[in-house]
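User: quick one, sequence for these tokens?
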């Protein structure tokens, strides 16, 4: 059994000495940090490194991060410490920043994952720095979880994965940050982020020009940071991230929940405080508020582990591209989901049908469009070019919609305004002359957002005004328009 050791006065007085001895003699002890719990072994001992890999089930070509108690210790293990690296150490240590250095021979290749470089950081936890001092050696420490699984943020999380595999875990309470450290290297006098984490790009950029390693964005590329080479942070259930605007994400996730429920699956949704009430899944878990991105980072691994405890079959998650540490959050989530992402972004968020008076063709088009199901929901509106005051739908147009089972209630004429022309709005006219009037009258109208309906879908004839004609002529107008809208729906659903 693995011993759980509380951090208290007795720890600093006595227990830490015994734990340091375990490390020094080649044993394994899990330790707390501000980021996640680490699985510690003697970084100078090849055998200890092998034990770490074995305990985690981690490939041995995945480098381990070396933890030191004080920045002054780095020169013992790094072959070179550049002035920029010193500035980073002075600014961010102790803290969630790992720096890659060329290594000295005293660091075995087993610790460095076969590389001639070594990743080093100085953690913020006083209990862990006391452990390093008591051991008298640097401590190699990846996250204290089974490889590919969510990283642990409490001692109990560690015990869940590591009980019986290691000698002890130091219980320092929940981790403050909940995401691993940022890993950087120095290349050409610039800072390169190999793994986003608890230290932001903005903070690093205040020290020197900072870029993100291209391998983070390329499938098949070889990341330089520990823990980034393989699928990682993953719950047991299949996980899919849904990205896009809020309403599209909610609609898509609910659609996915409904389809998987029909298959008898137990489904979890990962959402926020702002959106959790909109989902009808077996389990809805909140990552916190989007206004507090630190809470989202802090809750990520706990929620992934909760999904395991709840024994769900499928997880659908909102994306969390928050402004400051969103890259770090999404990096972990993408790894957890095996890069399974459904993108609900669309070019257009709204469709406005436009004709002359706002009472006939544009209203029929709105009614027809509302009768179809779009993969990504859009707001459908009708506008007139000349509307003196709100009027009900033309009586013959109304009769045609009723006969076709179209819901036309609350349809009234509305004047087209300049503010209707937004980047995500598609404006469709019935005739080419109406399109020309729009560009003459409305400064905000742009060519990429305004089309004649029939021209857009590849039909030859315009949809002419049936006003003054028989009920049959209104019916023919309706049928012609419906054929064009069927093509429009197909285009929108195919994303063309």
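Assistant:
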């Amino acid at each position: 059994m693995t011993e759980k050791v509380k951090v208290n006065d007795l720890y600093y007085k006595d227990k830490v000495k015994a734990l340091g001895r375990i490390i020094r003699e080649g044993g394994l002890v899990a330790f707390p940090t501000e980021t996640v719990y680490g699985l510690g072994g003697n970084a100078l001992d090849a055998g200890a490194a092998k034990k770490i890999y074995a305990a985690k089930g981690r490939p041995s070509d995945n480098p381990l991060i070396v933890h030191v108690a004080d920045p002054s210790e780095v020169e013992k293990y790094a072959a070179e410490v550049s002035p920029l690296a010193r500035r980073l150490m002075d600014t961010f240590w102790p803290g969630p920043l790992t720096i890659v250095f060329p290594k000295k021979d005293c660091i075995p290749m087993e610790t460095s994952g076969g590389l001639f470089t070594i990743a080093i950081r100085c953690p913020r936890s006083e209990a862990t720095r006391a452990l390093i001092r008591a051991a008298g050696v640097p401590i190699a420490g990846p996250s204290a979880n089974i490889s590919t699984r969510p990283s642990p943020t409490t001692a109990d999380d560690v015990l869940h994965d590591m009980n019986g595999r290691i000698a002890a875990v130091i219980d320092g309470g929940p981790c403050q940050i909940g995401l691993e450290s940022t890993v950087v290297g120095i290349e050409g006098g610039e800072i390169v982020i190999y793994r986003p984490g608890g230290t932001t790009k903005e903070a690093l950029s205040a020290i020197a020009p900072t870029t993100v390693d291209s391998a983070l964005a390329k499938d098949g590329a070889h990341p330089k940071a520990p823990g980034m080479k393989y699928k990682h942070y993953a719950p047991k259930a299949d996980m899919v991230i849904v990205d896009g605007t809020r309403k599209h994400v909610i609609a898509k996730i609910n659609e996915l929940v409904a389809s998987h429920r029909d298959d008898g699956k137990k489904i979890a949704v990962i959402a926020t405080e702002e959106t959790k009430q909109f989902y009808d899944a077996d389990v809805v878990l909140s990552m916190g508020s989007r206004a507090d991105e630190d809470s989202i980072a802090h809750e990520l691994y706990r929620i992934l582990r909760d999904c395991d405890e709840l024994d769900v079959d499928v997880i659908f998650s909102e994306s969390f591209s928050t402004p400051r540490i969103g890259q770090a959050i999404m990096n972990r989530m993408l790894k957890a989901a095996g890069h399974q992402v459904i993108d609900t972004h669309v070019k257009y968020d709204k469709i406005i049908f436009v004709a002359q008076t706002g009472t006939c063709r544009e209203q029929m088009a709105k009614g027809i469009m509302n009768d179809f199901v779009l993969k990504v929901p859009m707001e459908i509106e009708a506008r007139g070019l000349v509307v003196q005051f709100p009027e009900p739908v033309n009586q013959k147009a109304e009769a045609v919609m009723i006969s076709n089972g179209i819901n036309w209630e609350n349809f009234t004429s509305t004047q087209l305004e300049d503010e209707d022309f937004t980047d995500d709005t598609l404006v469709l006219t019935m005739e080419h002359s109406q399109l020309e009037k729009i560009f003459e009258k409305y400064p905000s109208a742009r060519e990429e957002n305004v089309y004649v309906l029939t021209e857009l879908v590849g039909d030859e004839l315009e949809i002419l005004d049936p006003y003054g004609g028989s009920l049959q002529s209104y019916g023919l107008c309706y049928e012609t328009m419906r054929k064009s809208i069927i093509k429009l729906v197909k285009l929108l659903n195919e994303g063309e």
